[in-house]
Amino acid sequence: MTVPGRRSSTFTRLLRHGFTDPSAAERLLDTQELAPVRTDPVLLDALGAVADPDLALRGLVRLTEAQDPEGRSTLLSTLTTAKPLRDRLLGVLGASEALADHLARHPLDWQALVTYEAADLHPGLPEFEAGLADAHDPVALRVAYRRCLLSIAARDVCGTTDVAQTAAELADLATATLRAALRIATTAAPQDAAECRLAVIAMGKCGGHELNYVSDVDVIFVGEAASGTDEAQALRAATRLASHLMRICSETTVEGTIWPVDANLRPEGRNGPLVRTLSSHLAYYQRWAKTWEFQALLKARAVAGDEELGEEYVAAITPLVWQASERENFVADVQKMRRRVVDNIPASEVDRELKLGPGGLRDVEFAVQLLQLVHGRSDATLHSGTTLDALHALAAGGYVGRTDAAQLGDAYRFLRAMEHRIQLYRLRRTHLVPEDENDLRRLGRSLGLRTEPVAELNKAWRRHASVVRRLHEKLFYRPLLDAVAQLAPGEIRLSPRAAGQRLEALGYADPAAALRHLEALASGVTRKAAIQRTLLPVLLGWFADSADPDAGLLGFRKVSDALGRTPWYLRLLRDEGAAAENLARVLSAGRLAPDLLLRAPEAVALLGDEEGLRPREREALEQEVLAAVGRADDAETAITVVRGVRRRELFRTAAADIIDSYGTEENPVEEDHGTLVDRVGSAVSDLTAVTLAGALRAAVRDQWGDELPTRFAVIGMGRFGGHELGYGSDADVLFVHEPREGVDEQEAAKAAQTVIAEMRRLLQLPTADPPLLIDADLRPEGRSGPLVRTLGSYAAYYRRWSLVWESQALLRAEPVAGDADLGRRFIDLIDPLRYPVEGLHEDEVREIRRLKARMESERLPRGADPTLHTKLGRGGLSDVEWTVQLLQMRHGWAEPGLRTTRTREGLAAAHAAGLIPTEEAQILDEAWVLATRVRNAVMLVRGRAGDTFPSDARELGAVGRYLGYGEGGAGEMLDDYRRTTRRARAVVEELFYGA
Known about the structure:
There is one protein chain. The protein is mainly α. Strands 1, 2, 3, 4 and 5 form a five-stranded mixed β-sheet that branches. Strands 6, 7, 8, 9 and 10 form a five-stranded mixed β-sheet that branches. Strand 2, helix 14 and strand 3 form a beta-alpha-beta unit. The radius of gyration is 37 Å and the shape is elongated. The N and C termini lie far apart (about 95 Å). The N terminus is likely disordered.
């Protein structure tokens, strides 16, 4: 008798045996059905050993309730006396609610677990075919299938079979099921069967002999006419049989479904005929197939139907599979395939994805299959459709390191075991690790983790996923280093030919040069070479993920040659997690950033510090520059420092732009493209202003000491004044001066002109640093007018001669260097011109429109595609800017928000003032941002400015990667650009031209 308030001894024992709800378990043990074994300690111990004791006990009660009295007695007697049955039955009940449901519906099926001969421990296809032989309709087939599945699950959860053997048994059961389904379909339509020969080819995991508990079974159907039958008639008959087979397996009945049969891997996918002849298959594969289709065919295996036809199919396609890596588009296709499927996983599920997530099963399978395609053309030992067998063969052949292969194999087995146990619970197709604590506990215990199952499971899962993440890249590249560095004695090495094939497959256009770089970097026994061998496998993967892997590797070699002897360089890359990936992205994204870096390689240090990639404040830069000028002995020494600062800051800006645009493991892609554009525009414009301030100070100090005889200011114009400069932009400026008290006006003008000439000379001196060109063509009278005027001269000119286009140009005017007070007074002078009271007259509006139309017809370069020219093309920068500027000149006098030199700020202000509807404002903003990003991308990629997309395919691909398009996405990028700018042009027609 239990004392009130005190737990019973049974309750305590149940708790100790792993039950999470001992009270419910006590009630279940007290049921009449379990009365004969209620106190049997053997039963309790056996329940405590399973994955989920509570689930097992509930399933056992349901099973005993479903028995008649005699059957119940037999079940319980066998359960207590036969340990093998006890372990198998309770193991299944504790791991699978779905199979417990099956046993409750078919209470005699537990007897399938009673006797085990040698063949029962590891059954093959004949045993499963015998198990399904009596199934003559879809419902009976489902029952027989589940009965066979029961025995597979029992062997699995008891450890009789490992994960690879379980997957192979599941594939054999699927094969037997397809044969049984075809038998049922043939029986239902004997005339169709007589008219055709039909072969079923298994693909995917079924073809690879590594199936999951619940998975689509991928197939391809091959049909031929029987003797004396018309081919078209035979194919119709074969299609009816194939369709019926699919329905038999896939349709839901009173016994549920088996699994979907998916024939979408066939030529042309779901748009192609379900059944083709062998010659039709071959014609498609020889002419139209893509690389991924050959990758899929790597697992093709004839499993049902006409055996001879199936073997003919496999024999015919096998040579095509192993020649796939010689195809012209193999590299591009491989790079496309290597890009993650992660992008399509909901963000909330990425961390729980076993198959497609980072470090998941897909990473292992893809890596192995790619290496098979690359090296299998010359080595038949690699021709296996089974992942683990292929991995073993790759290691045996020296294509991957033995240690790496062993670690990757262990991780793959663990992840597959997790996947199996997750699916086994409810027999549902899923690759998501559950979130519920009880589910995680059952999963952990099913894998033998008993002390702290949830914590141990998460730790083991993360560890194995980390191994996969680390190794799936290393798998490609470590053997390349061993091949050139000639280390790791005892390892079989890649031949130079095999190493070249692999580099070519991964996107390297010049494998021989790449191998030379690797040899130079990784050979030897120095500490430097050892660290390089650690870094390079990962770096090579990042290079291969770019549009120009060769440039990335060459750049890395040059930087390493320059900095290899400095103690901090390799330590930075090895120890600062982000630095190595940041460097890889920067070196392989185009020419500009590497050129800037190689002129002063120590700037690599910026890449290891998060703060190092943030643009510096203008005040801090100006302070640094002016202090350096003050310390210099002469103007040329001073300008060397100034231009060095400019180069360093250009590199900082370009590197941050590339990293934000490409994204890295630690730094996701910046989704707000407007923020990226504004960040670059502001940083480059501030840097240009600081450079001009430094050049001005150097020029003045060298000839006049601390003070110029005239006050002097530099006014930024165009993109410079609008804080919208790109990497390759000139500095558009006006110069204004005002003689100091007592200084002759001619002397002051001569001093101002001398300063300008010296600034230009200093900023274009031939040095290692990029020059800065000063363009003053927007001044009154253009090139015909004086280079510099006094404030009074400007006032007189604008009062008497100013044209409307000059007022429009002044919308972007902003002081950037020199005398701040003089700069402010110049702005006060021009404000009434650019924001005229009551706005523009109609004739002035017509003049602006006329000028714009003339510019469109005359200034677009000959041969340029007007739909792709970022500056002057349809819906490009000019269209958007002139539209905003027209609104500023018409309404700026009344709307203070419009008085800005920045295009996007002006557009936002026009929208806020109700001058542009929301949708139209968004369309213009999107087009302007996109066109600006394209210009930035062209400069980053080519190292020189351009207003249209590159014609070179690799450069075009690099622009696409910067803009967020995957490998092979250039066509989509151009289509998107045209669509975006076409919509913008429609808005411009309405708002600017009044159409």
